[in-house]
Design brief:
single chain, mainly alpha
Length: about 100
């Protein structure tokens, strides 16, 4: 019976997990770089032809990194224990914890 109540007070961080924020930011940067690599100029400021496309390569690398970060967040979610948080909050305020 105690396990059922503790399971009800536990939930995952979900969208507030730092790994989700990192994956979203890196994904946005990756899309911008990939688009710049595809539609950007392939000449430098002196008009010389550039070998390789750094924007495209780094953008693809960031897309892979963002996918790995989000996969990690989904595979091992951060579990928030509400009962533990309430006990710690009560201890900090100097009052007895509610049972």
């Amino acid at each position: 019976m105690a396990d059922e109540t503790s399971e009800k007070t536990r939930h995952t961080a979900g969208a507030f997990d730092i790994r989700t924020f990192i994956a979203a930011l890196m994904g946005i940067y990756a899309v911008i770089l990939v688009l710049a690599g595809i539609f950007g100029a392939d000449e430098n400021s002196a008009g010389e032809k550039v070998v390789g496309n750094v924007n495209l390569e780094v953008g693809i690398g960031l897309l892979i990194f963002a996918a790995l970060m989000q996969g990690w967040a989904l595979w091992r979610p951060t579990v928030v224990d509400e009962a533990r948080l309430a006990r710690e909050r009560a201890e900090q305020e100097g009052r007895p914890p509610a049972h």
